[in-house]
TrEMBL record:
The lineage of its organism: Bacteria, Pseudomonadati, Bacteroidota, Cytophagia, Cytophagales. NCBIfam families: PRK00431.1-6 (NF001664). It comes from Agaribacillus aureus. InterPro entries: Macro_dom, Macro_dom-like. Residues 1-172 form the Macro domain. SUPFAM superfamilies: Macro domain-like. Transmembrane segments: none annotated. CDD domains: Macro_OAADPr_deacetylase (cd02908). This is O-acetyl-ADP-ribose deacetylase.
Length: 175
């Protein structure tokens, strides 16, 4: 299976598309969203504004695609993960949808390499182990159907990296 684990900054990764953990406004923010807009320059925000004027932003669990501006990647797929509340507000399904809709958009655009950050596990406070299990499950099932796509999980913090390492190499099957 074409899954790779990396530790580092997603803005530096040369792939067809990097995924942004955006918010519903698509107008930027902190965390990885801030880093992507800062490194990629204003063209990304221009595209986001166009999408906003057409469809009014991006709903939680959905995804949109823009230029990557000055980044080494070709495109940015912006998805919106859920804010973790108490786990009873559909958070798990919404996070799954965010990964799946990003992959579907990559596929629709004939992209073959996609890098994901750990969506929702920063400012949105989604529990990291649960988020990693959902991400790995979604990607594993998707790649079974679409083996030509390579997925990179790019972990910025050591805690996430270690969680992914254990889940991916510890051969724990996603449930
Ligand atoms: N490369 C890769 N991962 C990163 C980077 C980077 N340069 N910077 C941070 N991370 P967060 P969320 C990791 O907070 O929880 C924004 O304001 C970080 O360590 O960026 O989905 C948006 O506009 C964490 O593991 O996103 C939204 O309002 C992961 O990225 C809100 O934050 C996600 O953390 C979204 O919150």
């Amino acid at each position: 299976m074409n899954i790779n684990l990396l530790n580092g900054d997603i803005t530096k990764i040369e792939v067809d598309a990097i995924v942004n953990a955006a918010n519903t406004s698509l107008l930027g923010g902190g965390g990885v969203d801030g880093a992507i807009h800062k490194a990629g320059g204003p063209e990304i925000l221009e595209d986001c504004r166009k999408i906003r004027s057409q469809q009014g932003g991006c709903k939680v669990g959905e995804a949109v695609i823009t230029t990557a501006g000055k980044l080494p990647a070709r495109f940015v797929i912006h998805t919106v993960g859920p804010v973790w509340q108490d786990g009873r507000q559909g958070e798990e399904e919404l996070l799954y949808n965010a990964y799946q809709n990003s992959l579907l958009l990559a596929r629709e655009n004939n992209l073959t390499s996609v890098a994901f950050p750990n969506i929702s596990t920063g400012i949105y406070r989604f529990p990291k182990v649960k988020a990693a299990e959902i991400a790995i499950k979604c990607v594993t099932l998707f790649l079974r159907e679409h083996p030509s796509i390579a997925v990179h999980f790019v972990c910025y913090d050591t805690e996430n990296y270690e969680i992914y390492e254990e889940l991916l190499t510890g051969k724990k099957t996603p449930h």
